[in-house]
Each structure stands twice: as structure tokens, then as C-alpha cells.
Write a structure and sequence with these properties.
With 457 residues, the protein is of the alpha/beta class. It has 17 helices and eleven strands. The strands form two sheets. Strands 2, 3, 4, 7, 8, 9, 10 and 11 form an eight-stranded mixed sheet that branches. Helix 6 links the parallel strand 3 and strand 4. It is globular, with a radius of gyration of 23 Å. 46% of the residues are buried.
Length: 457
């Protein structure tokens, strides 16, 4: 077996590769198709799901008094060096062996350009599209709630900005605040200095998450489900068919026989077989959709939907079992989201001089939050006997937690000090699930006391 330990800082140049043809700078047809078909999974760029001008009327006697907002970071670069380095080395080995097809030569040039776009230190940062997503979201918020923020300025109410402690979450908050203050500069002095709150916005790594960590590492149900999904013959064949477009049969056979192993120091990513290689390529394809403003990284000529779909399903299964509703009668994947929900309710009921709290975090928070809130399509578990698939589950990470995914609670109050909350999921009016009952005569408004009852038993 040839085993290569790759340095994470190395810069690989594929001199044997032909340059890729010029492509248009607009979003590719493949990316558009993938976005519509959820094939970009959790890397899907953000789109609001409803025009705010079509929202339901607020119940009579109630006025807007606050906002509780939690959002995933915006579109980003690769979170760390890994998949680009691994794929470049695999392509380099094939190039050195004369084992790249013409499409493989185009792929090598494209992956090298994608790698260069991350230099010298863009890993983990939000992209220009990610900045745009949050700025525009903030400006839509101001457009629909101008009186709330005019009142905040008049009364000098405070605005909290919280994040997970990770740079891309902090950067997303900066972009959101910039979007608000660009339209309404009078808000600038109202903002608190951004603060990290790992307990509510990075709870899957914070103190008290030990049971969840054991589940992710050791739970036999989870391990068995993912092993079965990875071993599925149709998925294995899709991976081989994808790679056969880029690598000559002799080289692909070596990979299939386990003769090639590529690993990274201090990193779990590796290429040891065709499915590993296909998953790495899928990762690069999906992240390219986040970098449309950095340059054209067009995979539309190279990757086929029939090969991408089984890989997207595997990626979604990992999120479904690892961060979503997972197994019926077990809340281990989303239990800790109760910390965030309790904090949002506390601040909605007792604002203490604040008009809004804006929070910025990750898919690992938005997915369990959506499950705990009972959002339709985001909260339906499966029995252990039923393996996740696109045929038997409506759960798709592209819909549950795309880039800049968000849950917004609009807070209203009447003269009797009754607090109502309307939830927006990706800016669409959304019902709370489970046993939560809406306020009399409404579909999307709930008293805060009712939400405490049904969400925080």
C-alpha cells in the first residue's frame, strides 16, 4: 500500500494538468439544479422563503416590542484545510502516473483554483456571499419592522449581539450589524460589544455536552446506520462511476483495492477508498456554491446529478442522525437546544431595556433547534428499524439549515402585558410543533407561557 501523510501547509501544483476552459461568472446550471434538488445539502446558499408583505396580520391590540434572532453563519470557505489538499494529492498522483482523463485534467485545474482561492488564510472565513446574505437579511428585517427600531432609537433601548466564539459566526454578526446600521445609522450606539456565549450557541461542545459526545462517538444505533448507508451497493457504484470520469481504470482499481491511502496530520479526513474520494469531491463541489463572488468554480461540466444524489443523501443522513431528530423516543441530538430556547423566552418576557438579541452560530445549533421547536420537515425522527433515505424522510439539511439559516421570534405585547411570539424560519411564518397551541384566532402567534409549557417541560 502507498500511504501518504500530507502536510496541511503544502501547496500542490499540478504542472501536468491542462488549464480548465473559461466559464461564465454566474451561478452554474448544475449549482442551480442542485440548489433546487437539495443536492448542496447544508452548503446551500441562503434564500428567504417568504415575502414579509404577505405575513399574517398581528392580533388586534398587540404591538411589536422586540426580536429574538438566531442565525447560522453565512456562506463560507472550507472550514479548514483538508478536502482540497487530499483531492489535489490524489489528482497529482494520477497525473504523475498518466492516469487522468481529459475531464480529470479539467478537474485538477479547477480544484487547484479552488485551493488557491483559500490562500493564504481564508479557511473558516465567511465568503463575500456570506456577508451579503446577512447584510440583506438585516435590511429586510428593518424594512418590515421600521417602527420597532425607530422606537428603540427614541427610547435608547439596547441591542445584544452574541456568537459562538468562532470567527465565522462573529464575522456574520458584523455583516448583519453593518446591514442594519447602513440603513439606520442611529442604531450604532445601541449595540453592545459582541460577546461569545458557548453555553447557548456552541452547546454541543460546551460543558454538559458529554452525553451528546458519547452518542456521536459510540452509539451503536448511529454507527450501524451510517455503516449500512455507506455500504449500500448503489452508493458505492455511484462513487465509482463519478471517479471513472476522471481517473483511468488502472488507477481507480488501485484505489479500490486499498493500495492508496492519503491522510492528514491531526485530522480525521482521509482518502482510503473510492467512496472517501467521492465524498471529498462532493465537499468541494458543494462549497464552491458559496464562493460565486470570489470567482467561477463551475463543476457543471464535470459532475452528474445521478452521481451526486447518493452522496448528498449520505451527507444528509449524517446530519439527520448526528444533529437532527434522529431516532424516535430519544432527544439526545437536540436536548441541549433547550438552553437556547429558554434564553430566548427569558429575554422575550423580560427584555430589561433590550429591543433585540441577535445570535450567530452554526448548523450544529440550527438543526437541533429546529427539531426541538417541532418545525415541520425538520423534527420528524425515524424508528431504529427504518434507515434514513430520501424516500422515507422529508428531512433535508438544505431546507432545515442552509447557509445563514435562521429562526426569528417577533415579540408582541398588549396593554394587559400578555406576550405573543411569532416564529419565522428562514423568514417564513412557521408554526411551533408538538403540543404547542396558537393564540385564539391565530395560526402563527403563541403566548410565551404556552411556549414554556410545550417546549420546556
Amino acid at each position: 500500500m502507498q500511504k501518504f501523510l500530507l502536510s496541511s501547509g503544502m501547496l500542490l501544483m499540478l504542472s501536468a494538468c491542462q488549464p480548465a476552459p473559461q466559464v461564465a461568472a454566474n451561478v452554474s446550471a448544475a449549482a442551480t439544479t442542485a440548489s433546487n434538488g437539495a443536492l448542496l445539502t447544508s452548503k446551500t446558499p441562503y434564500q428567504p422563503q417568504q415575502d414579509w408583505r404577505s405575513y399574517s396580520a398581528v392580533p388586534v391590540g398587540f404591538s411589536a416590542v422586540g426580536l429574538q434572532h438566531v442565525a447560522r453563519h453565512g456562506s463560507r470557505f472550507l472550514s479548514s484545510q483538508g478536502d482540497d489538499i487530499l483531492m489535489l494529492e490524489l489528482l497529482k498522483q494520477a497525473a504523475d502516473a498518466g492516469a487522468l482523463t481529459p475531464l480529470g485534467q479539467q478537474l485538477a485545474a479547477l480544484v487547484n483554483r479552488l485551493h488557491q482561492a483559500h490562500q493564504p488564510n481564508n479557511y473558516g472565513e465567511i465568503s463575500a456571499l456570506g456577508v451579503q446574505e446577512h447584510r440583506q437579511m438585516a435590511q429586510r428585517l428593518l424594512a418590515r419592522s421600521p417602527q420597532l427600531f425607530e422606537q428603540a432609537v427614541a427610547q435608547q433601548l439596547r441591542i445584544a449581539v452574541l456568537h459562538s466564539g468562532r470567527e465565522r459566526a462573529d464575522q456574520s454578526g458584523d455583516a448583519f450589524v453593518a446591514g442594519l446600521t447602513e440603513v439606520m445609522p442611529a442604531l450604532k450606539p445601541l449595540f453592545d460589544t459582541p460577546q461569545a456565549d458557548e453555553r447557548t450557541l456552541y452547546f454541543y461542545k460546551a460543558e454538559g455536552s458529554e452525553a451528546f459526545a458519547r452518542y456521536r462517538d459510540e452509539d451503536p444505533r448511529l454507527l450501524s446506520a451510517m455503516q449500512q448507508l455507506a455500504a449500500d451497493p448503489s452508493r458505492q457504484q455511484a462513487a465509482l462511476s463519478m471517479l471513472a470520469r476522471f481517473f483511468q481504470p488502472e488507477f481507480l482499481n488501485r484505489l479500490q483495492q486499498g493500495e492508496i491511502e492519503l491522510t492528514l496530520p491531526d485530522d480525521d479526513d482521509a482518502i482510503r477508498n473510492p467512496l472517501d474520494a467521492a465524498n471529498v469531491l462532493f465537499s468541494l463541489y458543494s462549497i464552491a456554491s458559496n464562493l460565486t463572488l470570489e470567482g467561477p468554480f463551475d463543476f457543471s461540466e464535470l459532475l452528474l446529478e445521478e452521481h451526486l444524489q447518493p452522496l448528498a443523501e449520505l451527507d444528509d443522513a449524517d446530519s439527520f442522525y448526528g444533529r437532527g431528530p434522529a431516532f424516535a423516543s430519544d432527544d439526545i441530538t437536540y436536548r441541549l437546544a433547550g438552553r437556547l430556547v429558554a434564553d430566548m423566552l427569558d429575554k422575550a418576557e423580560q427584555p430589561n431595556g433590550y429591543v433585540a438579541s441577535f445570535r450567530f452560530t452554526h448548523a450544529q445549533v440550527l438543526m437541533p433547534l429546529a427539531a426541538l421547536l417541532g418545525i415541520a420537515g425538520a423534527s420528524e425522527p425515524l424508528p431504529q428499524s427504518v434507515l434514513y433515505s430520501y424516500k422515507n424522510s422529508p428531512w433535508r439539511s438544505a431546507k432545515v439549515s442552509p447557509m445563514a439559516a435562521n429562526v426569528q421570534w417577533e415579540v408582541y405585547r398588549n396593554a394587559d402585558n400578555l406576550t405573543l411570539i411569532r416564529m419565522l424560519h428562514h423568514e417564513r411564518e412557521t408554526a411551533f410543533g408538538g403540543t404547542c397551541q396558537p393564540y385564539t384566532g391565530s395560526h402563527f402567534f403563541y403566548t410565551s407561557s404556552e411556549l414554556r409549557r410545550c417546549l420546556l417541560p
